[in-house]
Amino acid sequence: MNAVSNYNFAGFWIRFAAAFIDGIVMFALFIPVVLTVFSFGGTAENTDLALNGLFLIGCTVFLVICVIIKKISNKSQLRNGLALLGGTIIAGIVIVSSNVIALPTFRHLNAANPFLITTDILTDSVSEHATTTADISFFFFSILMIFGGIGAWILFQKKVIRSLKIKDEMAAFALIIGFLGIYFSSAFVRLEVLGAISVIILSSIGVAILISKILKEEHKPTSFVTKISFLAIIVALLMVPMVYPEKLNWSNNNMGIPNSLLHSGSSFDISTNDWPDAMQWLKENTPKDATIAAWWDYGYWISTLSERKSLADNATVLDWQIRKLASMYMSTPDDAWKILMSDTETNVGSHYVTLPSDARHPTRHLDGVFNEEQHRFQEFDWWKENYQLETTYDPDIIAKYSTLYDYWISEVYVIPPVITGLDADYVMVNLALRKLSEANQLDLYTIRQDGADETKAYWFMKIADLRVMDYYNPELKSYTDKFWNETLLGSLIPFTPVLYVDPDNPERQSETFKPGYVAIYVKNVKFPPGGQGPFELVYIPPSFERDATGPLTGPIIYKINKEYNTNQ
């Protein structure tokens, strides 16, 4: 009797300890999930729960309840689990449909539904958000995709998994993880990392089962040569991505490729100190409070290396700021000067080459033209619906105005930031081009869309909602006169096209664009050092000064002339 009591007592404490550990683990999981709500949450004016955080909390709660159901249910675990899953899905749909919480950004929605098409040009402009294609997936996974398919097919074969003593729940887990990873990775290239997890799991299962079946002792007699040949074929297939394609495969994909800072974010396979040198120059030759206007790709380089403020960087979530930069670069030099000189509270909307039709969604291309008066009325209506005057503002102040709208205009309204100035001190353009043979009488160059701002110009135009073909020649490899004569970007590039040459026969030349011909450029600094124009060249990369031929990259820096008079 004592032995039985001692046994039950020991079992009780074992179960208690296990339950206690489970509780600690669940609590530890729950804390970061709760904190995630706030990390994904809204602003001070918007206290709605973020959908991302709520989703993570819901998944954790679902997991906890499933564990409880498994512990207390013996015969109806599957039925109760499915009922819980169905109820959770219905509850989630109801919560989202009720607009109690804010929907996540398009990137999150697109990950959940790869069939969505973005209406935000800024999202399209990020290379990592490019849609996944079969070519890209095959380059990443190669032969493993085939083995992954074999693994998935085998897991559907009950006889096979039972003969190998694979538990049904483990097979289901592998299939669910596999198919979900493939589904989510089809949204855009960045999510191919999830596809990699799926392919690794399924292909490993496929290879392992294939090998075990051929080597299994109970299998019908197979010659030693056949087994070795089979294994050799498997190994050879697994080695394929290491050697094929010859010029770009898994073994040499990153071989010799320098850090992006060393090739100025271009497609050139070179290493230079042009960017570090330029940032050192900024650090030593500009005021500590200087602000640098540059495309957002270079924001981190500027802020970390030169210790100067940039207008946008890779963490910028203010889409209107990036829209302003794109429109500024595509505006005329005089208009761009006015934009760059004006502070962030001054209305310079008339100087931007274009304005968004909706100030709340500046990088979405919608029908219509921005009208500030109409925008004010819309903001006023929204303000009336969302604020209680008697509890928020002093009634004595409101009483001084004849109408509520007059009070709102004077005391509350803020000019939409997308039409205000940028307030910068320097402006920068990053270039990638090639210098031609020294045999020419003049220094000649080609600009062939090699990844720097001469390539990003396409997205400047798209984000600014401009017609690309007004600025690009057909084939999208060279630019029209409008680009060179009517945009700040064209004026900041210290080169000018002089002729177009047939690459197959350099003797065939044309002064105007012809399909298949390559544009040839000569140096032409539009805003020279010491000049009286709106901008003054203050720094040019050392690479641009050397005599050797080949690729040239680096940032070109201009100082904004505060004393410039647009009427002179």
Notes on the structure:
This protein is α+β, with helices and mostly antiparallel strands and 568 residues long. The protein has helices at 2-39, 51-72, 77-97, 106-112, 121-125, 134-141, 144-155, 158-163, 168-185, 192-215, 224-243, 274-285, 299-306, 319-330, 333-341, 372-386, 389-392, 395-398, 404-411, 453-463, 481-486, 488-492; strands spanning 291-293, 309-310, 426-435, 445-446, 495-502, 505-510, 518-523, 535-539, 550-560. Among the domains are: 2-104, no CATH class; 124-243, no CATH class. The strands form two sheets. Strands 1, 2, 3, 4, 8 and 9 form a six-stranded mixed sheet that branches. A three-stranded antiparallel sheet has the order 6-5-7, with no helix packed on it. α9 runs antiparallel to α10.
Largest sheet: 6 strands, mixed
Percent of residues in beta strands: 5-15%
**Class derived from helix and strand content:** alpha+beta
Give the CA-CA distance, first to last residue.
Answer: 109 Å
- Provide mean pLDDT, rounded: 82
Sum up the overall morphology in one term: flat
Low-confidence stretches: 1-49
Percent of residues in helices: 40-55%
In short:
With 568 residues, this protein is of the alpha+beta class. It has helices at residues 2-39, 51-72, 77-97, 106-112, 121-125, 134-141, 144-155, 158-163, 168-185, 192-215, 224-243, 274-285, 299-306, 319-330, 333-341, 372-386, 389-392, 395-398, 404-411, 453-463, 481-486, 488-492; strands at 291-293, 309-310, 426-435, 445-446, 495-502, 505-510, 518-523, 535-539, 550-560. Helix 13 links the parallel strand 1 and strand 2.
